[in-house]
TrEMBL record:
Signal peptide: 1-23
InterPro entries for the chain: Lipoprotein_NlpA
Annotated compartments: Membrane
SUPFAM superfamilies referenced in this protein's UniProt entry, alphabetically: Periplasmic binding protein-like II
Gene3D superfamilies linked to this entry: Periplasmic binding protein-like II
Membrane topology term: Lipid-anchor
Protein name from the UniProt record: Lipoprotein
């Protein structure tokens, strides 16, 4: 048994940060209206392009007008900027994250973002371009995991659930690298979540978030060596706002639309491969 954990910390690709940063500047007609108290202004929502932005575009194009909602969708290929621009009022809301990620982000950054409405779950998957089954991972093999605390814990638990590594007794999805009891000689490489799919060729296997798997044209039902169970999964992605804006009537309209039968059908029809699963209901603060 090996107790030494080999960790390679990868530098976040500048292109992903630059893309997110460039999306922060918006024309005057898409400026968030919440801080001005203008509830008739367009509702500006920051979102990961897929599936969150895709779902919001469906709402914008098919449902919003009838509900009397003006919706502007701003895509970000980044997990940090959406909360920052929501907190400082550049956008009115965001849609890309789950509760463990948000809790960590608020604590580390002093932001005050709160969840409003659950919409979907994107199960994590283990993917590879080099091996056909997880038993092919041997001592010296490399596996990349997302480097943010909540998703890294999920990734380590997924590896442990499938016998790739062993975690200390009692440790679950809150696991850290120091909680790995036996790495079996496998080198665990930390990457910014957005880089796990683009850099899949650099490792023997990569654990990839559902939205980034979709962007890389990876299908869980066909391509994943293992997929996180959706049953009793606490990682529902939700619509979120800065604390105090929960009762904005535009937010209430969008929350209702995101949990509508039309959106449920859209998700089930578009993501038949299981990469996105509806998970409707009020989000716990």
């Amino acid at each position: 048994m090996r107790n030494t954990i080999k960790v390679t910390v990868a530098v976040v690709a500048a292109s992903a940060v630059a893309l997110g940063a460039s999306a922060c500047s918006a024309p005057s007609d898409t400026t968030a209206g919440g801080d001005k108290g203008d509830k008739s202004a367009p509702l500006v929502v920051a979102a990961s392009p897929t599936p969150h932005g895709t779902i919001l575009d469906f709402v914008k194009n098919k449902l919003a007008d009838k509900a009397g909602l003006k919706l502007v969708v701003k895509p970000f290929n980044d997990y940090k900027i959406p909360n920052k621009v929501t907190d400082d009022g550049q956008v009115d809301a965001n849609f890309f994250q789950h509760k463990p990620f948000l809790d960590t982000f608020n604590k580390e950054n002093g932001t005050h973002i709160v969840p409003v409405q659950n919409v979907l779950i994107e199960p994590l998957g283990i993917y590879s371009k080099k091996i056909d089954k997880l038993s092919d991972l041997k001592s010296g093999s490399t596996v990349s995991v997302p480097n943010d605390p909540s998703n890294e814990g999920r990734a380590l638990k997924l590896l442990a659930d499938n016998g790739v590594i062993t975690l200390k007794p009692g440790v679950g999805s809150e696991a850290k690298l120091t909680d790995v009891k036996d790495d079996k000689g496998i080198k665990i490489t930390e990457l910014e979540a957005a880089q796990t799919a683009p850099r899949i060729d650099d490792v023997d296997a990569a654990i990839i978030n559902g939205n980034f798997a979709i962007g890389a044209h990876l299908k869980p039902s066909k391509d994943a060596l293992a997929v996180e169970s959706a049953k009793d999964n606490p990682y529902a992605n939700f619509l979120a706002v800065k604390k105090g804006n929960e009762n904005d009537p535009r937010i209430k309209k969008l929350a209702k639309l995101l949990n509508s039968p039309e959106v449920k059908k859209f998700i089930e029809d578009k993501y038949k491969d299981g990469s996105v699963i509806p998970a409707f209901g009020p989000a716990k603060g």
